[in-house]
Amino acid sequence: MTPQDMESRIVRYGDLQPCKTAFIDAHTPGSDQKENFTIIGGGVSESPDQHVHISIPHGFNIGAAGQPPKCRNSLHNHRTAEVFFVLKGRWRFFWGERGDAGEVIMEEGDIFNIPTNIFRGFENIGTDYGMIMAILGGDDAGGGVIWAPHVIQDAADHGLVLGENGKLYDSKKGESLPGGMSPMPLLTKEELAKVDCPSAMQVVGGYVRRYLDMVALAGEKPVKVIGETGIIRDKPGFEVDFITRGSATATKHQHDRPSVLMPVKGHWRVDYDGGSATLAPGDTMSVPENLAHSAQPSMTGEAALYHIIATDDAAGATWKG
């Protein structure tokens, strides 16, 4: 693997290309300043404007959401796993059809394995532009987003209609539903009754892990954050490890499928057969299958990164209420 080949598999934070029209709430006041990023895989965007940085299948998708202060992402549901870690800022995650069933405040480095089959949203409550990085289960990210009914209704009041084909049509651009196309139907009362609504204690206790707690757990081996034997015991179709300076090693290893390295603190030098690269927080590196590699901090100071690799588990439901 040449350095040029590997550089094509690194998405630098400063090179991320945002989409401001990715979802149905792109015109809704309070949500109209958010930016969506699809880093690896097709993502779940409803807009043809969404740029995909790396389209190579990994068994999961990597994305990100960037939002200024007080901007929120509207309440929605996914059929597969959705994991976030906070890269920059301070964020409030909330859930329930109206967002009032529970909430958790998350700081930089914290990670949240959001259960499937619950409506969830998030808001930047910091004082500057914030960024959260996302892992979505499956190569097709579960077939899109399921919106709370009021989100679809609010969007229509501001000119955006979601077709039953999962695509957006913007009346402000002169667009309308094609002939024979119906709008995406709202969930019925019966369907809404089947959506889970766990308590804050159930969600925070089972699915949130704090950065400083993981640093304290870190020793000479990486902390398995999400996995069958992880500190979040789940099988969402991928595993997530947390690596710090003490658990990093110069010994090279390889996997039989692509893996992803995502620094959250410090700079990391990745040595691989054929060359090396240095990653900073916010960078995303796709390591090819069967390529021997290692990752170590390249400077003194605090250093941590998340490592993601697919498993053979179905990217299915995580909530076990």
Automatic annotation (TrEMBL):
InterPro entries named among the record's database cross-references: Cupin_2, RmlC-like_jellyroll, RmlC_Cupin_sf
Cupin type-2 domain residues: 69-132
Source organism superkingdom: Bacteria
Coiled coil: none
Pfam family, one: Cupin_2
Protein name as annotated: Cupin domain-containing protein
Source organism (scientific name): Sulfitobacter aestuariivivens
